[in-house]
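Below is one record:
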Amino acid sequence: MRIHRWVRATLFAGFVIGCGGSPRPAPAGPTPPTEPGTGSAAPEPTAREPPVEAQCGGKPMRIAFYDAGQALAALVTLPDGKTILVDAGESPTRAGCGAPCKAWHARVLAGLEKDVPGGKIDMVWNTHPHSDHLGGLPGVGAKFEIGAYVHNGRDTDKATVKKAIGAANDDKATVVIVEPGTTTIPLPTSEDVKLTAIVPDAWASICKTDANACSILLRIDYCESSVLFTGDAEKDEEPHVNIGGPVGLLQVGHHGSDTSSTADFLKAVAPKYAVISSGKQGDGTNKTYCHPIKSTVDAVTAAIGGPATGKLRAYDNTKAKCNKQKPAYWSDVPSSDTLWSTARDGMIVLTTNGDGKFAAAVGQ
């Protein structure tokens, strides 16, 4: 099924022979014009994903962040062809959401149909038991075979979690709990790829009331390239996890909320690239969250460094909480040209050959 039409492509950095070679500088290029009042880039001529030659350890690694609205769903295709789905997006029937949630879920399924032609997802990694991260799993499980399902073992008495585990069981998937003291990942990889489960030494007491604080992070290293999925990990959890050193590509925590991405955490990550998965202004459940937050866009942009030639639509919560928002409190915030947002860019695909650089293509 054909689903995505690429409307914009940005190719960063030329590639070098082998891992750890000397990088070649890439031209910055002009920033696309924005549509008035939206913060969205005006469409450009259709472009395909930029080619990435296989060099370090074999084929490239591809990461697709689907346009899942106010949710998260990202598919990692490892160099050996194995696939990891990090979270499964929102439930299409979430109460009070209606048509937006149906559309978000449909986009995730359409993306997977294009990217998983064999019909099997080798591992689903659920960062934490919130609907916007696992509510879409029953729909995914109905269309795709799931090889293994990883979750944090919490809130298993809740209906959303029961449905997700049920979907995994229906596929006869290997179900594994990752938690403090238990971090084995049920997916073998090649010697050039390392998967690391990242959790605190113990769950914080706040986990009883805030599931975000018990997110299980996933780090993937491919030669000199690395990506960190944080789910909705927040300031209560970030100081207590060892991420194992700087990371090239960061999935920005909690959809760009100011409850995540603390200064110390960003300093430890030191990302060169980052993605925020969130809904558009006023769309569906983002009417009550107002993600991303301006201060977080500012902080991530500063952490990445380099030119801030892009613009992201963000909410200034220093003026009012989201429930008292006014259109004027939203603005197009200067942002790093290697910081992407699904709300602005639609589906985001980042590809690396293991040399520490990522080529980017965006579309909707």
Remarks:
- The first strand starts at residue 6 and ends at 10.
- Residues 1-46 have pLDDT under 50 and may be disordered.
